[in-house]
Amino acid sequence: MLERIKSRIFKTIKKHKLVENRDKIFVALSGGKDSATVLFALKEYIEKNNINCELKGMHINFCLNISEKIQKIVEKQAKLAEIELEIIYLKDLGIEFQNIIKKTARSPCSICGVIKRYLMNKIPREKGANKIATGHNMDDFIVFFFKNFLNKNFEWISKFKPKIESEHKKLITKIRPLFYVGNKECELFCKELGIEYTPPGICPYTPFKSKKWYEIIYNIEKLHKEFRYQMAKSIASSTRFFENLYSEKEILECKLCGEPTEQEICGFCKLKLMA
Ligand code: AMP
Ligand code: ZN
Questions:
Q1: How does pLDDT run across 64-105, given as a tens digit for each residue?
Q2: Residue 238 is part of which domain span?
Q3: Number of domain units in the chain
Q4: Per residue in 52-66, pLDDT tens?
Q5: Whose CA is nearest to atom 14 of ligand 1?
Q6: 124 C-alpha vs ligand 2 centroid, how far in Å?
Q7: CATH code for the domain in which residue 32 is found
Q8: 8 Å CB contact between 132 and 121
Q9: Residue 202, H or E segment
């Protein structure tokens, strides 16, 4: 089973050219099983194929009660993989997560998303990386697909693919090596290799995050073998139909920080103004 999982990840990396010579890739490590799987799979692929590619980890410490515990686990993963780790403390950037969520009607998940997307682009780019690897997995993409499709949010679906090439000099390429492996597979990967990871539900803001959609897709798979894998393949083949549905939004540079954004002031700076 472990070999099958690795082979699927390696096939994805090869087919979509996720790793190339002279790449410098940052792996966004949350402490969870998915990003840990990305780290160890990328490392093995690079070593096996003798690729001239530098791998580094980055972790955003949200400076909450649980953050120290999470950081320790990320540090253990990085040590085991023998990679350097960049840690970003939100407080050092003038962001107090707990204060911000009190001041806005937006959900903690959406605030967290703004922060992560911003830093997962800015930090690696400033440190000379050309790619960022995340642990978004096959199950996540299938669930996002159903949710977005039901809400007629077709534009987002165009981004559901293993690689999003940079479209702007300040945007780095995003890679998702787990596009064809899901939660079950990543759990098995980490357990078989003895990699410690944070338990699901550790986030204090979403401990009871709805698992409904994940249950639905696993239930379908009980009746239809390989449902998730087939679905992921179909999503990847259909994304092009969802591209350019609406008029292209121009990528601007934030008036305050200079980072790429579609608005005058980026989402991250707006949060900082709130703090
Ligand atoms: P999530 O949005 O929490 O499902 O996370 C998606 C991906 O973002 C993870 O698989 C990681 O690659 C990355 N990520 C999430 N949280 C962090 C964090 N605190 N620091 C660095 N990367 C993160
Ligand atoms: Zn900004």
A1: 999 999 999 999 999 999 999 999 999 999 999 999 999 888
A2: 1-274
A3: 1
A4: 999 999 999 999 999
A5: 30
A6: 16
A7: 3.40.50.620
A8: yes
A9: none
